[in-house]
DNA sequence: CTAATAGTGTCTATTAGACAATATATG
DNA sequence: CATATATTGTCTAATAGACACTATTAG
């Protein structure tokens, strides 16, 4: 038997097991900023550190199902939440216990009630993404990846509406873009742009009950439209440093 | 111990093992069309069916490393190949042997030599993506996902240059776009557009040795530039059916 | 009233794309 | 020479973004 025959006959069941987890980057907008759901680990390893919610997949359970379950365990919510696969991480030493491959998911939700700590967590809360504690494992990298994905998807998908409530004003939608992108956008141009993208929002015919907190007319209320892609897209102001 | 405590204490090592594989969607342009590398399975399950190259990850091996190894085993090449993570698949019954989670990778290469079959494959060859045989497991879904990713990435990254050789003409680059997107593009407008995107291509100062096969002047030769994102992007002609 | 906000109008620069023109190869 | 291709020029429509303006509401 030469080397290639040996390798072809490699049987993973003969080796120390690999475990598979899902980890969820759940984002929401709260207190004027973008926040991520973190749990404080109750168990070793990294007990006491903050981490993304997640856990081992169970027999018979598909990956998206596992991600939704992990999220629901902390937030109690599963509807009104957009969830999609982000990426997978499998560096051999990323978990000290054993070889663990993590499939990460990205979730977007409107402002949710306070999370409850699952029984494997000492605490759970929404953390501003620009003021993060030290994270367990490689979760800082996963989170950074999730943030970049979210920022990009705002450009060409109607994802922003997943951060808003059932009905929203154009200003609220602009607030989502400004918060996630960390920029300020011109109100007038943004307004016209949104209404010019077919299927992004549709009018409810209603308006807000009152004007803004500091004055201004009542705003028209919209709901999410049926577009799955925005055309033309809403592009972020170009950042030269991102291009090269 | 209530249910949540039980679930928190769930230990994956107490259950039947999960295995992790990598599968590679390797694309190239050959014979005027887009092709994908497939191997004919020599072993059960699905012996005799075509499948994406892939296999179990090995102890101590990171995921991208495993993908590069699997690709190299079939093609003999590892440099000049762009490789990136695509997505993960973990439906419980996707492999009849046991619970297998697959991390898929997407690879792009210029026209490569004929593949050699690895020892776990009866055959290996480049198949036109528009005339595919039946595929093993859920590999048709993985491949479809890879194709859509590749088409999208041509828009906003310099990926097309990964399909071309070291030096290429603007016409060759246009051929890549036309082949991957399956459309025909206006030569003049494409030419000017490419040169207007900063960092996409840079001139070598050379030209082709002779004109085209059926006449025409010698074309200038370019190499890939240093841009990582194309700005402005080269958008595919909008397709209304994709938007809704 | 004053200040802030919603929504609309207008103008300019950029870009995509249709179409034409010119020069240079092949056969 | 006839024809194909590379490259450049010109024009039009769509779009992004700067800026201005009006109407409406909170305080």
Quick summary of this structure?
The structure is a homodimer of 244-residue chains. Chain A is of the alpha+beta class and 244 residues long.
Structure description:
Two copies of one chain form a homodimer. The first copy, chain A, is of the alpha+beta class and 244 residues long. Chain A has two domains: 12-147, Nucleoside Triphosphate Pyrophosphohydrolase, CATH 3.90.79; 157-243, Arc Repressor Mutant, subunit A (Orthogonal Bundle), CATH 1.10.10.10. Chain A has seven helices and nine strands. Chain A has helices at residues 3-8, 63-75, 139-156, 160-163, 170-181, 187-196, 240-243, and strands spanning 18-30, 33-41, 50-51, 54-56, 82-89, 99-108, 121-128, 201-207, 220-224. In chain A, the strands form two sheets. In chain A, strands 1, 2, 3, 4, 5, 6 and 7 form a seven-stranded mixed sheet that branches. A two-stranded antiparallel ribbon of chain A has the order 8-9. In chain A, strand 1 (18-30) and strand 2 form a beta hairpin. The termini of chain A are far apart. In chain A, 33% of the residues are buried. The model of chain A has no long low-confidence stretch (mean pLDDT 90). At the A-B interface, helix 1, strand 1, strand 5 and strand 6 of A face helix 1, strand 1, strand 5 and strand 6 of B. The first copy, chain A, binds a DNA duplex (27 and 27 nucleotides) through residues 169-171, 186-189, 191-193, 196, 210-220, 232, 235.
Considering the protein shown, what is the CATH homologous superfamily of the largest domain in chain A?
Nucleoside Triphosphate Pyrophosphohydrolase
Order of helices and strands of chain A: HEEEEHEEEHHHHEEH
Largest sheet features of chain A: 7 strands, mixed
Number of helices of chain A: 7
Protein name (chains A, B): NUDIX domain-containing protein
Pfam families (chains A, B): NUDIX (PF00293), WHD_NrtR (PF21906)
Keywords (chains A, B): Hydrolase
InterPro entries (chains A, B): Nudix_hydrolase, NUDIX_hydrolase-like_dom_sf, NUDIX_hydrolase_CS, NUDIX_hydrolase_dom, WH-like_DNA-bd_sf, WH_DNA-bd_sf, WHD_NrtR
């Amino acid at each position: 038997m030469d080397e290639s025959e040996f390798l072809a006959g490699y049987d993973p069941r003969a080796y120390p097991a690999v475990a598979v987890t899902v980890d969820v980057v759940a984002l929401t907008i709260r207190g004027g900023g973008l926040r991520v759901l973190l749990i404080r680990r109750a168990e070793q390893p990294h007990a006491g550190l903050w981490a993304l919610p997640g856990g081992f997949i169970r027999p018979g359970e598909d990956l998206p199902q596992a991600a939704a379950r992990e999220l629901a365990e902390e937030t109690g919510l599963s509807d009104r939440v957009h969830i999609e696969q982000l990426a997978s991480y499998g560096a051999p030493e990323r978990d000290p216990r054993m070889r663990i491959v993590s499939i990460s998911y990205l979730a977007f939700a409107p402002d949710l009630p306070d999370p409850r700590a699952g029984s494997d967590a000492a605490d759970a809360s929404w953390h501003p993404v620009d003021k993060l504690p030290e994270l367990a494992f490689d979760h800082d990298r996963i989170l950074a990846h999730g943030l970049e994905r979210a920022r990009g998807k705002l450009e060409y998908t109607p994802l922003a509406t997943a951060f808003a409530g059932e009905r929203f004003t154009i200003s609220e939608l602009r607030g989502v873009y400004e918060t996630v992108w960390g920029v300020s956008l011109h109100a007038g141009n943004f307004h016209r742009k949104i209404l010019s993208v077919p299927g992004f929002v549709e009018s409810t015919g209603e308006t807000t009950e009152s004007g803004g907190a500091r004055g201004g007319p009542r705003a028209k209320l919209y709901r999410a439209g049926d577009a799955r892609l925005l055309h033309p897209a809403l592009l972020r102001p170009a950042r030269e440093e991102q291009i090269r």
